[in-house]
Design brief:
Blueprint: E1 5-6, H1 16-25, H2 44-61, E2 67-73, H3 75-87, E3 93-98, H4 101-111, E4 115-121, E5 123-124, E6 127-128, E7 146-149, E8 151-152, E9 157-158, E10 170-173, E11 190-194, E12 204-210, H5 211-216, H6 227-232, H7 242-257, H8 260-280, E13 299-302, H9 307-319, E14 322-323, E15 334-337, H10 344-360
Parallel strand pairs: 1-14, 3-4, 3-7, 7-10, 10-11
Antiparallel strand pairs: 2-12, 5-6, 8-9, 11-12, 13-15
Helix pairs in contact: 1-7, 2-7, 3-4, 8-10
């Protein structure tokens, strides 16, 4: 069967040349006679992959020596709990900016650990159609940290300018838009991201955290949950998800070879323009519920005039080789996730399909 155009929200599309390399090396990694998945995580072959992955994260994202780069298991959802376990001490409070389902889940997990407060919520009638402006944030200058989600996969919203938390460490869940453009890591106390959108396979979380926060973290929690444990052991305290890290290494190497994050941003903005232009060209037929200025360039959501039309659109798109366009079950509609792995040719095909579907409806 030929490869489809994969618009799934995650696990999401990976570059075909990265997949082809994994296929070539699956049974015999660089003449070792076995797969990278079969190598010891402390052996020479895997150690080189691991160290290369850390180095590429630092190079591509321009991460300074003030930060640790960690590869942790459990995806971003585990960090919802591990973050406050480490950084939220007794007598402290943390701020959470609520812009979608995932930030609400992060807030809920943190509440089981300690004291947290909502610094802002853009939810209206159980919907999120925008991200807040700086003036709307009720930030505590004494908070242990301020948490927000940079891109909201379900609602289709995204921060263009990040919140300013002053002297309070800013913590970002970048699961669905890390690596989509250059990012000034120095503005953050911590960044974490599940790998399954722009980085690699599911199950792996990339954590970039300031060393002073690691050192000041709580020590009265199990060692396996302490950031210092993984930092002092180069993310090798226990067996890491070796294949996922190998794939992350290959994705980053490809990104670097193809011009880095500046080139990626240009490509992503061109993809987003194709799709939003297709929506705006037929406002009587396609409608994006997200306010301009908050619209995501990773997850584009839109509606048609009736649920029946939406179902027909999704069915016919799938017949045309486009999968993953059904909106999240909590909001319905249509959603095209156009992460780094989605090619501009896919967006051209989708925009053309939208034009034809409108004509035939």
């Amino acid at each position: 069967m030929p490869r489809v155009m994969n618009f799934n929200a995650g696990p999401a599309a990976l570059p075909s040349d990265v997949l082809e390399l994994a296929q070539q090396e699956l049974l015999d990694y660089q003449g070792t006679g076995m797969s990278i998945m079969e190598h010891s995580h402390r052996g020479k072959a895997y150690s080189a992959v691991h160290d290369d992955a850390v180095s590429l994260v630092r190079e591509v994202l321009k991460v300074s020596d003030d930060y640790e780069v960690l590869f942790l298991q459990g995806g971003a959802s585990t960090q919802f709990a591990v973050l406050p376990m480490n950084l939220l001490k007794a007598g402290q409070s943390a701020d959470y900016i609520m812009t979608g389902s995932w930030s609400k889940k992060a807030f809920g997990e943190a509440k089981t650990v300690g004291t947290v407060r909502s610094a802002c919520s853009t939810e209206v009638d159980k919907k999120f159609v925008r991200v807040p402006k700086q003036r709307e944030l009720d930030l505590d200058p004494k908070a242990a940290y301020c948490h927000f989600t940079t891109n909201n996969t379900i609602a289709g919203t995204q921060f263009d300018a990040f919140p300013d938390s002053g002297q309070v460490p800013l913590v970002a869940d970048m699961s669905s838009d890390i690596l989509w453009r250059p990012t000034d890591v120095s503005k953050f106390g911590m960044i974490y991201a599940g790998a399954q959108k722009n980085i690699g396979p599911s199950g792996l979380a990339l954590v970039i955290i300031r060393k002073d926060l690691v050192e000041a973290g709580r020590e009265d929690i199990p060692k396996i949950f302490q950031y210092r444990t993984h930092a002092s052991n180069n993310s090798l305290y226990h067996t890491p998800p070796t294949f996922a890290i190998y794939m992350l290494r290959n994705v980053l190497a490809r990104l670097k070879k193809n011009g880095g994050l500046g080139a990626v941003e240009k490509h992503n903005r061109a993809k987003g323009k194709l799709l939003y232009d297709a929506i705006e060209a037929r406002p009587d037929f396609y409608r994006c519920p997200v306010e301009e200025g908050s619209r995501s360039l990773m997850n584009v959501v839109f509606n048609l005039n009736t649920p029946e039309l939406e179902a027909s659109f999704i069915e016919k798109a799938q017949a045309a080789g486009m999968v993953g366009l059904k909106g999240h079950r909590s909001v319905g509609g249509v959603r095209a996730s156009i992460y780094n792995g989605a090619s501009i040719e896919w967006l051209e095909a989708l925009a053309s399909f939208m034009n034809d579907f409108h004509k035939d409806a």
